[in-house]
Amino acid sequence: MFRKLIRRATVLPFVQQPDGSLDLSPCCVDLLIEGERIIQIAPELDVTADQIVDATDLLLIPGFVDAHTHTTVGVLEKCGYEALPLEQWMLYLPPNERLNPRLHYLCTMVAALEAVKHGTTTMQDDIYALPYTPPEMFGAVAQAYVDLGVRASLSVHAINKPLHETVPYLADHLSDEQKQSFISVSTCTPAEWESVFRQLYRDWHRQADLITTVLAPSASQRVTPELMHQIAALSEEFNVPIHTHLLETRMQAVTGAEFYGESVVAYAKRHGILTHRTTIAHGVWLSQADIDLVAEAGATVVHNVVSNHRLCSGIAPIRELMAAGVNLALGTDGMDSFNLFDVIKMAGLVHSATDGDRKFYPRAADVLKWATRGGARSTLLQDQIGAIAPGMKADFVLYDLNSLTFTPRNQLPIHLVYSERGRSIRQVYVNGQLIVKDGQVLTVNESDLLAELGEHLAAYRSYRDQWHQQSQTLRPMMDTAFQKMLSQPLPIQRLNTAYRDQSPSPANVAEVILPLSS
Known about the structure:
This protein is an alpha/beta fold. Helix content is 39%, strand content 19%. It folds into 2 domains: 3-62 and 390-441, Urease, subunit C, domain 1 (Roll), CATH 2.30.40.10; 64-378, Metal-dependent hydrolases (TIM Barrel). Strands 1, 4, 5, 6, 7, 16, 17, 18 and 19 form a 9-stranded mixed sheet that branches. It has a 4-stranded parallel sheet with strand order 8-9-10-11. Strands 12-13-14-15 form a 4-stranded parallel sheet. Strand 17 and strand 18 (433-437) form a beta hairpin. Helix 3 (101-117) packs parallel to helix 4 (135-148). It starts with a strand and ends in a 5-residue tail after the last helix.
């Protein structure tokens, strides 16, 4: 088996300590890698190797985990909208499942290229589709990760309830014909969905030692109770994660009270999908009672702080989640960028401006834990990735300590969170394979992929424009439902209260959505 020796690296181990913190103390050591794993770490190893890498003045840390992203949507709709809350924004997303599988492959490649060049070695990609992820779509996405050599945890997404049954007050303004159109596109029985999942698990789980599969009920209000129970049973049978969106927006906080007489988190727990294998994307509008349920279950919350701001969702209760001992991870959500450093810095800054008690401000060490160990735990790969230790996968990144970013080399974790943006990265390894060297990806031809994607964009934009024409007819109805939602009292507030009196005007919407057609 091929043996690689990394000499004289400055290593931050990221190994979890008994108190739950990570060991971020720098040490100068050698690493011996055999195949896809680290097998030995010590100063000045006296061993033979097939290849020796001089890492003098290079910082070695684990690769980041982007614990929640959407690659196809994130690439095709990048920078396409402004000032749109989630519910209105989703109206304008053309159905992904109708796209050519090759387009999914190319979008995944472009997203993962940006991610890996900026130090992310594992992506938890929620392959958004209605009513579920088609096998050819899943296969195209998975193959892109395999070809690139990046680790990925991929979801089999599910939505089997029509839109008007998932958004309060919307049904009051729809015709019977509109309701029927929503019903027809969301039809999916638990048995049909289970058959698709089992096929994809057989075909792709552990493929190339890079791909794992995830069960993804889109949100507890977007799937039937029967499907939630089916997903819970499959999660236990296969020991795979459940990945879901819960309480991303104020609308979703109102949804639980209006439809179920309880929080959508309590509703998820009642139907079996809130467990220690569950990852909750966003969690902005969690109440303290919800946080207690999440902590009791041992679930993870992914903090998508950039997306939460871009989609006007609010500020997640990260301090309360930390106090409750909830596992936290970070995600880009595919919002404008797949560079996790954007999220890392913002996560370190935002929660220091919500009150004056600095005892509870997240520290750089906390944020780095979310970006590594927390994300690994969300994918159930915490025994494989997220730390530099013997037996772990050789997924790591080498940074140039002589760069402007790390000058004057004060506290390296703080440099990583507040100064680094990925510019100092010199090498990226996944499974012991060198994927990126000096800013160049070695496994695929980036220029050819970008050129091919460009050839598909004209057809996609035509499709997108047609979809927008349909969406514009629904926009006034969604706006009306949104305004009624804002008038409903809630015991918590995650937004500036001035927001209650504001909503985007139709004129602003036209300005936002038309530029890609011009």
